[in-house]
From TrEMBL:
This is Uncharacterized protein. Keywords: Membrane, Transmembrane, Transmembrane helix. The keyword Transmembrane applies. The chain crosses the membrane at residues 20-37, 49-70, 109-130, 142-163, 184-207, 219-238, 304-321.
């Protein structure tokens, strides 16, 4: 059996150090690296100059920290789903091996590298000469920052989607139980927890650039599609399976109401038909009809809404603080 491989972003937090500490050390590393660039270029160290890269520094540290949290949540949900299946041990081991193998091919990594380099050169000029452009090392470092952000975002997003796709595939081995759709809740939870990566990055963006953040800002355009993508991926096909199971169960109940007790033996309540009457069957039918077509509960729904409003509240709070400081200074 081959040893499972993880992307570099996850390997950073594979040690015994706490995830938050690795994230902090990542931030410290890039602050020191920027200080080194300033020293090489002879640039005076000042808070205003360091603040220009706060978004990059905080985002890299945050992604290192949150990627491990999200991946661990996915792994926990995966094994919970696995416990609900009726697979034999060999089949379970195959799914476990597949889930743990998160290797990203070098061909796939060419995509964020190319995008990052193009983005970096577009921001810093299509070309420059070390002898002609002021602060050439700072220019190169700026391009490297953009490249690193693109690679980290790509690695994290790709890992989340792979995990959730594997969880979705495993869920097909779980028989739909209309009275217990909680078995499929790890799929919904995986999608909700995954949007934390996007929400966190956008929250940092709102804090970092209070004056430039407007509702029409192009940076906000990918937010909603990304969130939808993360939530839909693990639930792909699940709704159809639940609807199909509901229709089958309701059909059996209706036959039972019409007097076909034999049909009820194939239903979910087939082992509890003693003393059941038409009123009971009609009540049971309403219960099945009201069953949500996606696995969701109040805590998960509340968490999803809370995650979505974090960036907005951050923007409002940061704007209030910013205006208050301006008022006090003025």
């Amino acid at each position: 059996m081959n040893k499972p491989s993880q992307p570099f972003l996850l390997r950073l937090t594979s040690s015994q150090l706490p995830n938050w500490l690795v994230g902090v050390l990542t931030c410290v590393f890039f602050v020191l690296l920027q200080a080194l660039v300033f020293e090489i270029e002879g640039i005076k160290h000042s808070y205003s100059l360091y603040s220009t890269t706060f978004f990059f520094i905080l985002t890299t540290g945050y992604l290192v920290f949150i990627s491990r949290i999200i991946n661990n949540n996915h792994e926990k949900g995966f094994f919970k789903l696995l416990s609900y299946t009726k697979l034999n041990e060999s089949e379970k081991q195959d799914h476990i091996q597949e889930f743990h193998d998160q290797k990203l091919s070098w061909k796939e990594m060419l995509i964020p590298i190319c995008i990052g380099l193009l983005h970096g050169f577009f921001v810093n000029g299509a070309s420059f000469s070390f002898n002609e452009v002021p602060y050439p090392f700072l220019k190169v470092y700026s391009i490297i920052q953009i490249l690193i952000i693109w690679i980290m975002i790509w690695q994290s997003t790709s890992t989340y989607l792979r995990n959730m796709t594997k969880m979705n595939r495993l869920s097909r081995a779980i028989e739909i139980d209309i009275l217990n759709t909680e078995q499929l809740m790890p799929l919904t939870s995986a999608g909700v927890i995954s949007i934390l990566a996007f929400v966190g990055v956008y929250t940092i963006l709102f804090i970092e650039s209070i004056d430039s953040i407007e509702l029409y800002n192009p940076a906000l355009l990918p937010l909603i599609p990304s969130i939808v993508w993360m939530v839909v991926t693990p639930l792909s096909g699940v709704r159809k399976r639940i609807i199909s199971a509901k229709e089958l169960e309701i059909g059996l109940i209706e036959k039972g109401i019409e007097g076909d007790k034999k049909a009820l033996e194939k239903s979910r309540i087939g082992n509890n038909l003693e003393n059941i009457n038409v009123v009971d069957l009609m009540t049971y039918k309403r219960l099945i009809t009201a069953t949500p077509e996606i696995p969701i509960n109040i805590p998960t729904a509340s968490r999803f809404i809370f995650y979505l409003i974090i960036p907005f509240f951050t923007w409002v709070a940061a704007s209030i603080v910013d205006k208050a400081i301006d008022y006090l200074i003025g």
